Amino acid sequence: MRISTTPSQLLAVRGEIVHFTDDPIQRGAGACVHFPDGLLLVREGHVLACGPTAELESSLPTDAHRIDYSGKFIVPGFIDTHTHCAQTEIIASHGEQLSAWLEKYAWPAEARHADPAYAAAGAGFFCDQLLRHGTTTAMVFTTVHPVCTDALFEAARARRMRMIAGKVLMDRNCPESLRDTAAEGDAQSRALIEKWHGRERLAYAVTPRFAPTSTEEQMQRAGRLFGEIPGLYLQTHLAEQRSEVAWAMWLYPGARSYLDIYERFDQLGERSVFAHCIWLDDEDRHRMANSRAAMSFCPTSNLFLGSGLFDLARARDFGLRVGLGSDIGAGTSFSMLQILNEAYKVVQLTGQVLTPEAGFYLATLGGARALCLDEHIGNFLPGREADFVVLDPRSSVLLEARVSHATTLTGRLFALMMLGDDRCVAATYVLGEPAFERDISLPPRMPYQE
Ligand code: GUN
Ligand code: ZN
Known about the structure:
- By secondary structure, the protein is of the alpha/beta class.
- It has 16 helices and 16 strands.
- Helices cover about 35% and strands about 25% of the residues.
């Protein structure tokens, strides 16, 4: 169903609406807003109102454009707080843990993105994959090549997606073809910031890959740049595997901990997002909380690479902001539903429980908070950007059978997050317009092959 509204025309989308105004674990059930038969009203790409159909319908103007998704859920667009656009092609590569996996799979893939045409094809495919999985905002590592960053921002801009991204800074302990220098990396980042940061829905993240692949000079420049320009983000990896922690500590003698390395180089702040955060101690958590830094929990990646179990409750104890990350291509799915499935199991293994409400919060408003974007996206409060996903609980025979036996919202959300995947995504809307619709979309093709 292709809609055509004039920007000022009212769009009225009907379905079962679920969104969050706060963290349901901290604030209780009242943080979950649920309209079993609801209307989401959108004008000029922004939410005008959201409420029960019975209340809102009578006030709709006659020329409102109505779309009926009755029987389906409408939730805010999913937010992926950590991923790599140039690693799509090596998702599900067998047999290694982090450092061997980087050398064998990730770096060769990233090296191929030095070619602008290859990078552009990959970026388009990556953004389309995000959309067909219901993800409308992502924080992304590109590669060391500025052309790859240009390609990703171009692809996101063409699709009007919110995107935070940055060129990888990496000047040691990596192949020659992927190495910049501290001065070069700094100059290239500055040029990309000038070109993209703050343009439409795009923002730049200073991106030291992780402490082991940057010299002290590069780390110093990254911290300085991060503090210099308002609104800039910083993204990196932290404490993913035990051997990586040991390597980082060996490379930076005198640091108290892996986190301390980033702290010494002024890389902690409200707009810093650290992926993984598994092998931390409470002093690290305390310092992260003090600096308001955020964490990206990447369960499918952490299980796939054998990294370890993220401690969600401990992060919560320290008041840390946490979002979910696909971490493609060490992560094994673009689907936030699949990521929630594995998050649930990781949390089980740490002796805690992830409720479906807490899970959907993490995938939406939690992610928006982690990225300091919660005044723009993450729920359906009036004025928010109208990014939303339509989820079909009858998209597979098994899911439909399970949902038909679920008697509560909690039960149905749980079935969706355990059994759902991209087949559930009936449509994804960006700024109130369809960016993906299952029925009319062609099957995806990798762009790299004839
Ligand atoms: N640590 C440094 N680089 C990477 C990467 O590309 N993926 C993951 N999972 N961890 C990393
Ligand atoms: Zn990563």
